[in-house]
Amino acid sequence: MECKAEMVTPLVTNPGHVCVTDTTLYFQPLNGYPTPVVQITLQDVRRIYKRRHGLMPLGLEVFCTEDDLCSDIYLKFYEPQDRDDLYFYIATYLEHHVAERSAESYTLQWQRGHLSNYQYLLHLNSLADRSCNDLSQYPVFPWVVSDYSSPELDLSNPGTFRDLSKPVGALNKERLERLLARYQEMPEPKFMYGSHYSSPGYVLFYLVRIAPEYMLCLQNGRFDNADRMFNSIAETWKNCLDGATDFKELIPEFYGDDISFLINSLKLDLGKRQGGQMVDDVKLPPWARSPEDFLRKSREALESSYVSEHLHEWIDLVFGYKQKGGDAVGAHNVFHPLTYEGGVDLNSMEDPDEKVAVLTQILEFGQTPKQLFATPHPRRITPRFKSGSQPSSCNASTADSPERRRLTRLPLDAVSPGEESFEDLTEESRTLAWSNITKLQLYEQHRIHKEAVTGIAVSCNGSSVFTTSQDSTLKMFSKESKMLQRSISFSNMALSSCLLLPGDGTVISSSWDNNVYFYSVAFGRRQDTLMGHDDAVSKICWLDSRLYSASWDSTVKVWSGVPPEMSAARRHQFDLLAELEHDVGVDTISLNAAGTLLVSGTREGTVTIWDLTTATMLHQIPCHSGTVCDTAFSPDSRHVLSTGEDGCLNVIDVQTGMLISSMTSDEPQRCFIWDGNSVLSGSQSGELLVWDLLGGRSTDRIRGHAGAVTCMWMNEQCSSVITGGEDRQITFWKLQY
C-alpha cells in the first residue's frame, strides 16, 4: 500500500509519502528532513495505536519498544480509510497481534500490583491518544503532592497530598465559587474553565530548558516574560491553586528519572525577574536535596499508599465517566466545548479560513483525552485491603467460622491482622502450590457412575469422597480402600450438585426434581427434603447455617435453619430468608469467603453480584453469549471470574461491576478454581487448562478426561485436586514439586 501522509513531530507536521511492503514501513518526507527515508522493519514493531489528531481519527503511532514513552514514528493521514488500511496491514503482519490492548486489560494488572501507578498512567495516556510527538495531546499526569514548603516530605500524612477527587480548578474553594457564579450566568455552550489542564503552551512551560526551539516557535521567536517562566515548583503549584486562569496538571517527566528539564544546562538567557535575579535552574522545595532527590521523592509520592488508594478518582476525571455530561458538571470538570472529541465537525465547515482558525484553536488550546471508561474506575488493591481469607475453594460450600463471619459484616471488609497470622503457613503453601500448578499429575481414575458426574464433596480428613451424577445417584467412595461404599438414590431425576456440612455428618444434594435432599452419613438414610423450587435446582452452597439454592425457576433462595450438625431424629423447619429474582433460569452460584456476597450466572449469559446483607443486586453484567458455566469470587472478594459456553473467561471488578479482563478459549471451560491470579479450568474436551490472568493467556494443558470436565474440588492446601467428567469418571490429581 502507498498513500500521502504527514509525519507528526512536536509543533511540526512534515508532508510526504508512506509505503508499506510485506517486511518494512517507509516514510519519505517531501523535503528530505530529518532523513530522505524513515524506515521501520515490521519485525521490530511491538505496539501500534490508532490516534486522534486535531480531534479527528487520522493518526497512527508505531512503537518498537514495550515501555518507551516516545514512539518510533507518528503518522497523520488525510483520510481515515488510509489510516485504517495501514493499521490493518501492520496488525495482520504482527505475529502475536500485539495491536491494540484495551484499557481494561491493564486495569487488572494495576489493581493487583503488577503495574506501578506510573506505568499504568503511561498506558492510559497512550490508549487515550496522548503522545510525546503531539504537544497538543502530550501525556498528562496529576499533581499528587500539595506540600512544597516543609523541610521533610511526610508521605504517611494524608495532608501532604492533593485531593485527587477534584480537578485542579476545584481545589481552591473561593476560586471555584467565582468560576461557578460565572458559569451560571454564561449562555450555552457553558464551560467552567477558560483554559485547559494540558496544552502545548503548558508542556513547553515545563520543558523550556530542554526544548527552547519549540518555545521560540510557539512564542514568535521570544521566550515568555521571565516572571511567567517555570521558575519554582512551589510558585507553580501556588499559581495552579490561586491563579484565575491556571488549571494545569503535570507531565510524566516529573515522575521519571531525567532531571534535565529542571536544570538550565544549555545556559539559556531566559531573562531577568522583577527582583533582579536571572532565570536559571528550577527552584526546588525544601524537602528536595537535589533535582535527583526531587524526582525520586515525587515518584515515591506517586507510588505511595495514599495515591494508590485515590488514583482511581483522578482517572475518573481525566479518562473516565466524570469527563463528560452530568457527572462532569457535578464534579466541576467542564472545559471549553472545542477541547472535546465531537465538539465541532471540521468536515462540515465550508469556509477554509474558519476551518484553519478552529483547527489552530483545537491544537493550541488543549484537548481532553479520549474517554476510556464509562463507569467508575476500580480502586487499587493496596496491602491494607488485602485479606488473608479462604482459598477460592474448594467446595464452593466449605464452611467458614462464625467468628470470621462476624469480622466481615461489610461486603468488602478485610480480615483482621490477628487472624491472618493464624493462616500464614497455609497461605504460603497455597502460594507455592499455585506457582507449581502446571505440575499437577493424574494418579487415579475410577468410573463409579453411569452418567456425567455433577458434584464432588470430600470429608475433612480426605478419606471419603461424595459425588452426584445425572444418573440420579449420590455415591460415597473410600479413597483409602478405593472401593465404592454407598450408592443412594432419592428419585429418578438427575442430581446437580452436592456439599458436605462441617462435621461430615450430612450430605446435601440438589436435584432436577426441584428438591434439595439431606442425607445422614451416620444413619445411612435420607433425613430431610426441602421442596423449595418450581423447577430443577442447579447448584447449592452453604455457609453459617444458611443454605443457598439456585434454580431454573429464575430464583436463588436463601434458607436459614440448616445447622452444621443436623439432627437425624427430627424434621427441620427451613425458613426462607430471601429470594433473589432473575429474568431467566440460574445455572450456577458462588459465595465469597465472608458470606456477604453472592454471584449468580444465568443461561442467557448474565452474571449478577448480590449483597447478601441487604439481599439487593449490586451489579448485573451481560458478559457471555450463552449459558454461564461457572462463577467464583477471588479469595479477597475483589473480583469475580466467570466462564461461559462462549469459551470466554471474564474478570469483573466487584466494587464497580466493570469487566476488566476477558480471555477467549477455543472451547467452553465448564468449571474452574482460581486464586485471584491463576486459574485451573476444566474444558469441554476433557483437558485441564492453566491460565495466567495477568498475562491474559493459557499457559498449560493437562490431559484428563475422555469427555467434558464437569466439576472440580481442591483441598485447602491446594495440593490435591479431584475432577468429575462426562466420561462418568472421578479423577484424583496430586501436585508433585
From TrEMBL:
Residues 387-400 have a biased composition (Polar residues). Residues 1-91 form the BEACH-type PH domain. InterPro entries: BEACH_dom, BEACH_dom_sf, BEACH_Domain, GRAM, PH-BEACH_dom, PH-like_dom_sf, WD40/YVTN_repeat-like_dom_sf, WD40_repeat_dom_sf. Keywords: Repeat, WD repeat. Residues 95-380 form the BEACH domain. WD repeats lie at residues 530-560, 579-620, 621-662, 702-737. It comes from the Eukaryota. This is Protein FAN. It comes from Camelus dromedarius (Dromedary).
